Amino acid sequence: MMFSFSRTLTLCNKEIKQILRDPSSWIITIIIPLLLLFLFGYGISLDSNKIRIGVLVEQQSQLAHDFVQELNGSPFIDPVFSNNRYELSTKLSAGQIRGIVVIPVNFAQAVQNHQGTIQLITDGSEPNTANFVQGYLTSIWQIWQQKQNQQRLIDHRQGIEITSHVWFNSAAISKNFILPGAITIIMTVIGSILTALVIAREWERGTMEALLSTPMTKLEFLLSKLIPYYLIGLLALIICVIVTVGIMQVPFRGSITLLLIVSSLFLLVILQLGLLISTLARNQFNAAMIALNAAFLPAVMLSGFVFEINSMPAIIQLVTYIIPARYYVNILQTLFLAGDIVSVMLINAFFLIICICLLFVVILKKTRMQLD
Question: Is the whole model's pTM more than 0.85, yes or no?
Answer without folding.
Answer: no
